[in-house]
UniProtKB/TrEMBL annotation:
This is Transcriptional regulator, LysR family. It holds the Pfam family HTH_1. The lineage of its organism: Bacteria, Pseudomonadati, Pseudomonadota, Betaproteobacteria, Nitrosomonadales. InterPro entries: LysR_HTH_N, LysR_subst-bd, WH-like_DNA-bd_sf, WH_DNA-bd_sf. Belongs to the LysR transcriptional regulatory family. Residues 2-59 form the HTH lysR-type domain. Gene3D superfamilies: 3.40.190.290, Winged helix-like DNA-binding domain superfamily/Winged helix DNA-binding domain (1.10.10.10). Keywords: Activator, DNA-binding, Transcription, Transcription regulation.
Amino acid sequence: MLNYKQLHYFWAVAKAGSIVRASERLHLTPQTLSGQIGLLEETLGVALFLRIGRRLELTETGRLALSYADEVFQIGNELEEALRSRPESRSIQLRVGVDDAVPKSIAYRLLTPAMSLAEPVRLVCREDKLVRLLVELAIQRIDLVLADQPIPAGTHVKGFSHKLGDCGITFFAEPRLAAQYTDKWPLVLNSAPLLIPGKEAAVRIPLMRWFEARQIRPHIVGEFDDSALMQAFGQAGTGIFIAPSVIAEEVRREHGVTILGHTNEVTEQFYAISMERRLTHPAVVAINDTAHRELFANLDTYSRSPAETPTRVTRSIKR
């Protein structure tokens, strides 16, 4: 078993750059430090330092060990701080990873209920690629991942995907751009400039299949991993863009864009991924319950309609 005192001595020497400086900081003799690091290397069966004259240099293995030691002692400091906090001033911490593909507005709406609990919640959000966030979840650096898909097949993370809801997609364009495309829906998209989600977004493949099934060939002018950046380019008139229908009116108002049409045959799904089969964290329970009761239960009529009828859709949502 790893001796954490020896690991701390190794970490201190690596940070100080020499055994002498580390011994002064730790109030230990250089001989004690050298002996303890030697025992650690013997236990691990690897060399952590190269001794070049009076200098010490980390080996490749030593650099790897140092990166892990940094995390170990950072977490230790966080634990000490948490345990020393007064109970009456302590808040529930919720560490959430948000997949790049999840629109910021959807993430905000999903997370807001966690901030409305009777007990104070300290929310810590990180945004990254889903694969990297799942690794963080597996080593318990975060409590929850918000994503547009369940845990991908072949991912070596044993977690649970809790579906929060789904909805169709809506197409938007800057008003002057929209005025140039007046054909019936969805033929209006044929040859039109289009901004699409990046390859890692779950909606990307269903969207392209939908175009193919209708023999629609848009002119793709941009691909974006970040939905907010895609909307910014769309607002500037670079091309037509999509967003989940559940936030269609919000996108229209905030960006001053025109709604061209929608489809429910292509859907965006949203998941809360956790290490728990049954959700128990009070903030996560609030997120899950509100998503089912409110966010995805109160969709506009046009984003709930069971079929795509071009004439009806045009009348109900074109501005």
